[in-house]
Amino acid sequence: MTETKNNNGLKVLAGLLGVVLLGTIIYTVSLYQDKKKTETDLTKEKNLVVEDLNSLKSEYDKAILESNATNEELVSARDNIARYIDSVKTMKADISSLSRYRRQVGVLKAEREQLLKQVDSLTRSNTMIAMQRDSTYVELEKQTVFNDSLVVQNTQLADAVEKGSALNLSKFSVDAVRERSSGKLVSTSRARSTDKFKVCFTVADNVIAEAGDREFFVEVLDPQGNVLGESYSKTNDDGASVTYSKGTNFYYENKSLDVCDYINKPSGDFQKGNYMVNVYDDKLKLLGTSKFTLK
């Protein structure tokens, strides 16, 4: 009887131990499964964080490429994200660390939005500046063309004024004269009778010419082509020169003016033959030519 009770007790104890062992096994398996699930979730979460960081980095790379000039703030932010990616990949995943990085991802996204707004504003500003610069360049080109046109017009106008203000002769005559004992001069065509040449010309009126003292130059060439008189020399601004017989001075007041001067005979008599007389203005412009013959 006693032995039967002992056997029953052992059986009950063995059953209890079996139940406890089974429970322990079930609990251990449950803990292991929970751990594996937690590790899997943490790995997924870690990958999501890395994915978000890579997405942010790609957006910065795109913004840097689209920027006309290197933006140091964009480059710095991109490099920081690259360091965060390396840290997340190498860290041992845990809830605390992942939560901290997840919050940091949110901060980085907000920072990205702010930086991209600044870059967009700067890009629009640079575009506007470039447009204004191009517009200014076009206006400068137009102004340069206009100024060049004005220079040409002014030059043409100055040339026209200079040409228009130049004096000209409306009449020009040369007469060989003999002086009588009374002092009266009479015309002659004979070389032996000629005492001097009377050179007369009429300066035409010109309202735009400058009034004042003027000097014209009379050149008399004998039959051999030699210059009669003192043979003075005059050179203009262009380097051209003329050897002349006499300078004739007069005062011009924009009205028609008659001027006469005389060329005295050289030592001895005038030669027979053909003579030519030229009149030049103060810039050595030829104003008139006259030819005559002494017998």
Would you kindly provide a written description of the structure presented here, covering whatever features stand out?
The chain is α+β, with helices and mostly antiparallel strands. The chain has two domains: about 1-125, no CATH class; about 170-295, Immunoglobulin-like (Sandwich), CATH 2.60.40.10. The chain is built from three helices and ten strands, in the order αααββββββββββ. The strands form three sheets. A four-stranded antiparallel beta sheet has the order 2-1-3-8, with no helix packed on it. Helix 1 (about 1-65) runs parallel beside helix 3 (about 95-165). The protein is rod-shaped, with a radius of gyration of 58 Å. The chain starts with a helix and ends with a strand. The relative contact order is 0.08. The mean pLDDT is about 75.
Descriptors:
10 strands; alpha+beta; about 55% helix; 2 domains; 4-stranded antiparallel beta sheet; rod-shaped; about 300 residues
CATH superfamily of the largest domain, called what?
Immunoglobulins
Count of spatially separate domains: 2
Could you say which structural class the secondary elements and strand pairing correspond to? alpha+beta
Mean pLDDT: 76
- Top-tier CATH class of the largest domain: Mainly Beta
* Widest sheet: strand ordering: 2-1-3-8
Number of helices: 3
* Strands, total number: 10
User: What is the name of the CATH architecture of the largest domain?
Assistant: Sandwich
Report, as a whole number of angstroms, the end-to-end distance: 196 Å
How helical, in percent, are the residues?
A: 40-55%
The description of the largest β-sheet is:
4 strands, antiparallel
Low-confidence spans: none
Radius of gyration: 58 Å
Structural shape: rod-shaped
Q: If you consult CATH, what is the topology of the largest domain?
A: Immunoglobulin-like
Question: What's the order of the H and E elements?
Answer: HHHEEEEEEEEEE
Classify the beta-strand content into a percent band. 15-25%
